[in-house]
Design goal:
Distance between the termini: 145 Å
Strand content: 15-25%
Helix content: 25-40%
CATH superfamily of the domain at 320-732: DD-peptidase/beta-lactamase superfamily
Oligomer: single chain
Structural class: alpha+beta
Radius of gyration: 38 Å
CATH class of the domain at 320-732: Alpha Beta
């Protein structure tokens, strides 16, 4: 019988099924999670992978140019080849040092600006193991215990670097360091100038060829200030910080808040500083697109930027140059004669009396060059408004007008010029006894006694020979307030920083009031003296002096100026509270001083003592000589040597021309002109004659060439309308009262 085999069933254990089920669930969860990530959050993660950052940086542009009144470029920009470095957020210190080492083999970078601290920092970078050994185990333990921090630990390393170790840095090391310090001096993504002066064509070309191996390095064109007329007017034009200096430390926060970078160049003095907002220009804005690592992947220019706007000065640069030359000649001539050892400076301001525009502002200072030990005459134009002196008899016009105004003096009144014998004081007199003279003769001959007796009357006093003089001391305030209407003892309002007011004598005594009346007590600046004489010349309007005439849009074409953005209008600060007839009478006195024989300036203008140049421009002027103890820079030398401080004489001159319709007003101030009472060198009147000659010579030369004026200044004939317009503007601004800037 045949047997049939029975087929066995395959049996999977229960535990295996459970395992398969768990694996199935895990794979299902993973697939579900991948689906969620891809479908739901896929775009978010894709954006994260492609995440970039937009960083906008500003790049500097050239400053605006400065022109004279006739459109001649006085300050310009000269192009410079430059090598720059820009680091990203991801740039490491090692990468920067590697670039610095490569650059050091291509360019020559002086290490003269490298500081000792920077040398120590670099020594630590170069010798990290040796630097580590300078920290003791105990100090390391304190650091771990947080008893000292990183900064304190690093300072210990710095302090323990020896002079020998610093000297181990080679010349090549220092050059690398000089480059490296420039690379790390600014912000990320902002180009830092590595070298912009003295870049040779070879350096420029080799760097250009190797840019691919110098990450972050680039070549560009930078700029530097160029002064077309050398040192002419240099002290007033001011200075601009260089790329190493950047923002002045004391003003850094102010500028940063206004969008500047810390390594930006800015004006640091006078015109460059005063008009920084105009000259700086609009920076170019560049957007750098970076990936999440900080690497720049794209660059986009947002705005091209524009160089600064241009300034047009009221200064006539040709007149300025001639005036400076005249001062130099007269200063050196006076210095060559005995008795002038303390003479070291002279100043001239020339201005349009109707507009306040400064036509020339010159000053020279005699100094001994430290290197050559030879005398030099340095530009000291700014001394016209930053230094003050006793002006002497030049201010007598203000004394006479104050006498009229207070009723102490009548026009045409005669006073007997005689030595004043006041009990307890030295005799006070004129340089000669003039007898009975009127106000015009008092100005013409420069009578001191006439002014003394006027001041006594203002103070309510009565002069009696050999008796004490009793005066109401309120007369000081009366006379000072009156003088300030002319600008003497008050700020002129010039558009330059650093203007000084002068010095008011604090001691009050009858004799000192008499000294005040002849300009030998309070001190004034040369610019105040020019404003004073201008106020009289134009009929009683104190005009605000200004040196900038226009602001213009920049144009790239050389030799041209752009459209006017802003024009500085004449501004009346105040009008003299005096009758026009009184002012005219003082003007007649000034005419006599310069045009009639016997006048204190007549010999200079008409007797041929200065030059053979004919005087046909009808000058009016007032001379001044102020005697007093020397108070110049060498005063301490006398004190230290136990010697008496000597007496010196300041020489001054204030005037205008032509006398009947003034075009130009001026002041000449020569402090400490002579001592020991030698023959008066008349440096003041010599300079005054020559500068007026120069002004009218230039005018004639230009007329012969088809030009109508000595400068492009337009005289304000309707000065009353100017004041009315200003008064209307003040009223519209709800100021309520006319502007009067005759206070300190």
């Amino acid at each position: 019988m045949k047997k049939t085999k029975k087929k066995k069933k395959t049996h999977v254990p229960f535990r295996m099924n459970v395992l398969f089920f768990v694996v199935f669930l895990l794979f299902s969860a993973l697939i579900l999670r991948l689906g969620v990530v891809q479908i739901v959050f896929g775009e978010d993660f894709k954006r994260e992978i492609q995440r970039t950052e937009d960083v906008t940086v500003d790049t500097s542009v050239p400053r605006g140019k400065i022109f004279d009144t006739n459109g001649k470029a006085v300050v310009d920009n000269t192009p410079l080849n430059a090598i720059t470095y820009t680091r990203t957020q991801s740039t490491t210190q090692e990468e920067e040092l590697d670039v610095a080492k490569k650059l050091a083999k291509i360019i020559d970078k002086p290490a003269d600006k490298v500081t000792e601290r920077e040398k120590k920092d670099y020594w630590i970078l170069k010798h990290p193991k040796q630097a580590e050994k300078k920290i003791t185990a105990a100090e390391r333990q304190k650091y771990q215990n947080k008893q000292i921090d990183d900064k304190e630990l690093y300072q210990l390393q710095l302090d323990r670097i020896t002079e020998k170790e610093l000297k181990s840095l080679s010349k090549d090391d220092l050059e690398i360091l000089a480059i490296y310090r420039e690379m790390i001096s600014g912000y990320n993504l902002v180009p830092q100038i590595i070298k912009n002066k003295g870049v040779t064509p070879k350096e420029f070309a080799v760097v250009s060829e190797h840019l691919s191996s110098l990450p972050g390095v680039d070549i560009t064109t930078d700029w530097d200030r160029y002064y077309a007329y050398g040192t002419t007017l240099k002290s007033i034009l001011g200075k601009v910080s260089n790329s190493d200096q950047g923002l002045p430390r004391e003003l850094a926060d102010y500028y940063v808040a206004r969008g500047y970078s810390r390594n930006d160049r800015v004006g640091t003095s006078y015109i460059e500083q005063q008009y920084e907002d105009v000259l700086q220009g609009t920076k170019a804005k560049v957007k750098n697109v970076t990936d999440k690592e900080g690497n720049v992947i794209d660059t986009e220019t947002i705005t091209e930027g524009q160089r600064g706007k241009d300034l047009v000065l009221s200064i006539d640069i040709e007149l300025q140059k001639r005036v400076e030359q005249i001062i130099e000649e007269e200063l050196m001539k006076a210095k060559s004669t005995p008795g002038h050892e303390l003479l070291d400076r002279a100043f001239v301001t020339m201005m349009d009396p109707y507009t306040g525009e400064i036509l020339a502002m010159a000053g020279k200072q005699y100094e001994i060059d430290e290197k050559t030990k030879k005398p030099v005459l340095n530009d000291f134009s700014l001394g016209n408004f930053t230094t003050s002196y006793a002006m002497g008899s030049a201010v007598k016009g203000a004394t006479v007008l104050t006498g009229y105004r207070t009723g102490a003096l009548e026009p045409g009144q005669k006073i007997f010029d005689e030595p004043l014998l006041i009990k307890g004081t030295k005799e006070k007199s004129s340089y000669k006894n003039f007898g009975l003279i009127n106000d015009l003769q008092a100005l013409k001959f420069s009578s001191n006694v006439y002014m003394f007796k006027t001041a006594i009357k203002i103070g309510g006093g009565v002069y009696r020979p050999n008796e004490p003089l009793h005066i109401n001391m309120d007369a000081f305030d009366t006379m000072r307030n009156s003088f300030k209407q002319f600008g003497l003892g008050s700020r002129t309002g010039i558009d330059l920083p650093g203007e000084q007011v002068g010095y008011e004598g604090y001691t009050q005594a009858p004799g000192l009031l008499l000294d005040f009346a002849i300009g030998q007590f309070d001190t004034y600046t040369p610019l105040q003296l020019a404003q004073y004489i201008s106020t009289i010349a134009n009929g009683g309007y104190r005009m605000q002096p200004h040196i900038v005439k226009e602001i213009r849009e920049p144009v790239e074409k050389s030799g041209e100026m752009g459209p006017i953005v802003e024009e500085v209008e004449p501004k009346v600060l105040n009008r003299l509270d005096m009758k026009p007839s009184w002012i005219d009478r003082v003007k007649e006195g000034f005419r006599l001083v310069a045009q009639e024989q016997g006048g204190t300036a007549y010999s200079a203008f008409y007797a041929g003592t200065v030059s053979s140049h004919p005087t046909n421009y009808k000058p009016a002027a007032k001379t001044g000589t102020a005697e007093g103890l020397y108070d110049g820079p060498k005063r301490q030398d006398f004190v230290k040597a136990g010697k008496d401080v000597p007496m010196t004489w300041n020489l001054t001159l204030a005037g205008y021309a032509p006398n009947d319709h003034p075009e130009v007003a001026f002041s000449v101030v020569v402090p400490w002109a002579y001592q020991d009472d030698p023959k008066n060198p008349r440096t003041n009147t010599n300079i005054g004659k020559k500068i007026l000659d120069a002004y009218f010579d230039i005018k004639k030369e230009r007329q012969e060439k088809g030009l109508d004026k000595a400068t492009s200044i337009q005289k304000v004939e309707n000065i009353d309308e100017v004041e009315k317009g200003q008064a209307k503007a003040r009223k519209e601004n709800d100021s309520g009262a006319p502007q009067n800037d005759s206070t300190n």
